[in-house]
Specification:
16 helices, alpha/beta, elongated
């Protein structure tokens, strides 16, 4: 029988009763010779203690298996928890490879990062990870990949084996990687000889972390982006104070912030960017910023027109329904759609037009200076573009977002030839929902400052 025991970071106060009992019952105890001082007084008379060097983990496991086969009750000790950077893994590996029927048991202990968490107060309040900088059995390339993942993922990070006499540069590299992803003011703790008489805890920041203050008996704890210092404690909130968005407005606001975080906002004019954010929110696709094109300051001109009570003419009722009523009620706008009027049906039949084209043709006579919003029919956009080119109407602007396969691209190319404010959803993309979204973007342009800093 082999019991692999974690003896904690040091001192009987951190040694679990189940571990104490196993030590007291052992015939043979095997471990790094330095650790035996922490279980003095628990070892019964006659127990054989076999101490090995720090680098002789495999040898310790082999001896344990040999003695267990001989019928002895064997205990293998390691600091902290037996399963965390300790002896359990190598003992189980060797036992599996031996082909012998050996009984195994792992008895837990208090790992150094758990002890550090309690000493620091509440630093492990949210997701955390542990990384060992020892490259004795793990290639540095793999270690660095994990460091980068932890830094990018905003994990509270406990750093085991941060430094030794021969391994003195790795912690400095870790610090440099973390500074690429975290504030220089991120709280950091250097925890030395936890649970032992020499225990010392130093609080600092990521920028001020002096790697020369760290040695092989230290554990380094790095907070996440939310961790803060309170007195001599480090606190990582669980997030309860940052309530998840629940109302429609809160969800929309959080969505906008997430979208903005994925865009190179400095590359675009403010009003264009705001319209693009609204389109991305509608589509769920950040690539939609590539399919939006506008004339210079088009969204700004449309905003100024709409907040003065300007009239909106659209080709289909779905666009009419998608324009936020709170805006039109606030500013007193009319939203005109003549798609289903008797006059439209008669004109469509008489001239062989689509209903959308006929409705827009009639609306253009009644509202020649309106903002025209086309979200369905390319024939309607062609009608408006041709009338503008002929000087028959002078719209405040045109939003062109018809969707489909026939005459769609051609209708949008006509729009680009006009010298008036226009907004286009390029190629065959578009639809009523995007047309309404662009109107709502123009209405709400004055709120863009709540999200955009450029």
């Amino acid at each position: 029988m082999i019991k692999v025991i974690g003896i904690g970071p040091g001192g009987h106060d951190y040694l679990l009763p189940v571990a104490q009992k196993a030590i007291q019952e052992a015939d043979i105890i095997i471990g790094y010779h330095y650790y035996f001082q922490f279980i003095t007084g628990l070892i019964k008379e006659g127990t054989v203690c076999i101490g090995k060097e720090l680098s002789e983990e495999e040898k310790r496991a082999e001896i344990a298996i040999e003695k267990a086969i001989e019928g002895y009750s064997v205990v293998v000790i390691g600091s902290g928890d037996a399963g965390i950077y300790s002896m359990a893994s190598i003992v189980y590996q060797k036992a599996a490879a031996s082909g012998e029927d050996i009984s195994l048991e792992t008895i837990p202990g208090i790992s150094a990062f758990v002890a550090a968490g309690s000493k620091l107060g509440a630093v492990l309040g949210h997701d955390f990870c542990c990384i060992s900088l020892s490259d004795l059995m793990t290639p540095w390339k793999t270690i660095q990949k994990r460091i980068e993942a932890a830094a990018w993922g905003d994990f509270v990070t406990s750093v085991y084996n941060p430094k030794s006499v021969k391994r003195y540069w790795q912690l400095n590299k870790l610090k440099a990687i973390f500074l690429l992803h975290r504030s220089p003011e991120t709280p950091v703790a250097i925890c030395y000889q936890l649970g032992r008489p020499e225990e010392k805890i130093t609080l600092t920041t990521l920028a001020d972390l002096n790697t020369e203050d760290v040695d092989m008996f230290s554990l380094v704890v790095i907070g996440n982006s939310q961790t803060f210092q309170y007195k001599n404690h480090l606190v990582t909130p669980r997030g309860y104070l940052n309530r998840k968005p629940e109302t429609g407005l809160e969800i929309q606001q959080e969505s906008f912030r997430e979208i903005i975080g994925q865009l190179e906002t400095e590359k675009y004019p403010r009003d264009f960017l705001w319209a693009a954010i609204r389109c991305i929110h509608t589509s769920g696709d950040t690539d939609y910023i590539k399919y939006l094109s506008t004339s210079d300051k088009a969204i700004t001109f449309m905003h100024d027109y709409l907040v003065q009570g300007g009239t909106i003419v659209t080709d289909v009722t779905m666009v009419q329904a998608g324009i936020t009523r709170a805006f039109t009620e606030q500013y007193g706008n009319q939203v005109i759609c003549m798609l289903n009027s008797e006059e439209t049906l008669a004109l469509a039949a008489e001239e062989g037009l689509t209903r959308s084209q006929a409705g827009i043709k009639l609306a253009a006579k009644l509202y020649p200076e309106a903002l025209f919003v086309i979200g369905n029919a390319p024939t309607a956009l062609i009608e408006i573009a041709d009338q503008v080119r002929q000087g028959l109407i002078h719209p405040a602007g045109i939003i062109g977002a018809p969707v489909g396969f026939v005459n769609v691209i051609e209708s949008k190319e006509r729009l680009k030839m006009l010298t008036l404010p226009y907004v286009i959803i390029e190629e065959k993309r578009g639809g009523s929902n995007f047309a309404a979204t662009l109107v709502n973007a123009a209405f709400s342009l004055d709120t863009a400052g709540n999200y955009l800093v450029n």
